[in-house]
Amino acid sequence: MIRGKIVLTGQLKNISPLHIGNASNDRSDMDVLLDKHNKPFIPASSLCGILRHKISLNIDDENYFWGFKADKNDNKIDGKQSIIKCMDLECEKFKLKIRDGIKINNQKGLIDNKFDYEIVEPGAIFNLKMEFSFADDDEQSVKRMASTVYTILDKSIQIGAKTNSGFGKVKLIKDNINIYLFDFKNKEDVYNWLTQNLSVKNLVSHETLGIPIEISAPDLFTIEANLQLKNSIIVRSYSDMPDMPDSIHIQSNNKNILPGTSIKGAIRARAERIAKSLGTESIIDKLFGYVDTVNSKASKARIKIKEVILPDFVSELQTRIQIDRFTGGTIKSALFDSMPLFVDMQKKVIKISISIPNCSKAEAGLLLLVLKDLWTGDLAVGGEKNIGRGVFKGIEALVKFGNDLFILDQDLSRISIDQKKKLQTFVDEFVLKKED
């Protein structure tokens, strides 16, 4: 019998682009899910699914809190309703945008297909309401669960598509969060609950609910690299306005960005090239994921790369011509212009963040080799690489693997001998992977 309720209300804000699709293509190849008022929303099933996956519990506790279906093959096992109730998160303030994407044929190095997709720009506000029901015998455990959910949302979680490219990061807005406790032994609480009067008298802090359930952290390999742009960069965004250039650098909320998808694409292409040269291709699909349309198989990528807001670089319009590769002359009426970003006199730093949960030493070794190429300017990111755009030089990097921390500066020769040996063991593990 239900003895009381805990109600969590507040607002979530997406701090990176969000895409929760609905399989329609009215506005783009992949549209954002909209409600009947044509506003984006976060389905309660999506949020609860992420929370359930995030919280590490044994199977009995998991079924108790989140519920389970009845077993059709065993009449003795009935289903159980979840003690957690969540409403769809409706959106108050939002901005939708269409982004362009390309699929690269890594064997040919050419564009295989172009597509676009719709996103909710960072800064959208989503209204949150969750209810937790408790009885006499489980009050403390349910309170701990409510405290755990609050803690996870306060630290931020990722939801929706392309989370491994930095999308879908949402976080509680602290000023707007409230937790109410209704004890049905108290008549006033019963009345307040029935009339949905969220009274100040029922307000409690999350600390009084108990210690949050500990979330187990996987073995994490991370790279935090500070880089400087050598010359210029462009990740193309196209406009249908006649007075705009044919292509400009991509923006989000009027700020120039380096999308996680662009960084990830460049890293994957270089990782594949390295792996093929050593005969260790099997590691690529496990790390970057794959889609096998013939056998209807797929695997999600494990590598995570954040989207980067770029410093205030200078943008300049450049008009270019197309060359006839047979004659070597220009093609008539084949003028096009683009507006890339250029470095100025100030040495502005770009921070790139890469992480791999449950990372093996071989995978860490492969990423170190890719970092070296990015660091030394051998790996470019973005478009127009054939004319020198998208090249970086390394300034400083923090590499973490488990309890080990490695600090790299611009001159890689300054690394201590012990750290060099340890980093080399990761590379050696990757090289030996071909023997598996």
From TrEMBL:
<dbReference type="InterPro" id="IPR052216">
    <property type="entry name" value="CRISPR_Csm3_endoribonuclease"/>
</dbReference>
<protein>
    <recommendedName>
        <fullName>CRISPR type III-associated protein domain-containing protein</fullName>
    </recommendedName>
</protein>
<dbReference type="Pfam" id="PF03787">
    <property type="entry name" value="RAMPs"/>
</dbReference>
<dbReference type="InterPro" id="IPR005537">
    <property type="entry name" value="RAMP_III_fam"/>
</dbReference>
<feature type="domain" description="CRISPR type III-associated protein">
    <location>
        <begin position="251"/>
        <end position="393"/>
    </location>
</feature>
<dbReference type="GO" id="GO:0051607">
    <property type="term" value="P:defense response to virus"/>
</dbReference>
<keyword id="KW-0051">Antiviral defense</keyword>
<feature type="domain" description="CRISPR type III-associated protein">
    <location>
        <begin position="12"/>
        <end position="171"/>
    </location>
</feature>
